[in-house]
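Write out the 3D structure for:
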Amino acid sequence: MMPLNALLALTILCDSNLRRRKELVFIVALAFADVLFGLGTLLTGCFRIHASNMLADGGNTTLPMVSPWSCYFTLRNMLTIYGMEVSILMLTAISLERLMAVAWFQKYANIGIRKLVAWAIAVFTFPLIPLSYASYQVYIASVQGALTSATCGIGPPDWYGLFHNWFSGTVGIVSVVLYGGVLLAYRKAKKLL
């Protein structure tokens, strides 16, 4: 799916007619977020294959110890975690945008593309706050001398897992509720016609 999302984003960005359509701003942003998540997942899979081959080929089950920071703060981890959260938020932003377009179409017509792009940038920025704090905590644990196996089984701090699960679930429910509002607004508008 990652190449298809990249192709979708490039198609919309390269065609001037498509770039002018407001509803496609969030579609491009979602495609880009999915590309980030897909790339992180691909890199994580490649790393796991490499690590398991290292253990299988050498017969060595004792890998060198490294700091949690060396394991956690990698491109694959950051892309996976960040891409997942941005994708969830972007789906909710799309739900809200569709609700506005259907329920409050006159107000939606006055919203410019630049404002929607600013909203998309805000969606991409928000997950950086908890991710930065979790990264800071892993860094502090590394400075204090904690070590982990080089297979890098370490993840974010425990609170971040709880936050992420709560966040994902809550934002997902909000997205579904918003789409329920889209359906109700559509039925109401259809009765008026």
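The chain has a mean pLDDT of 84.
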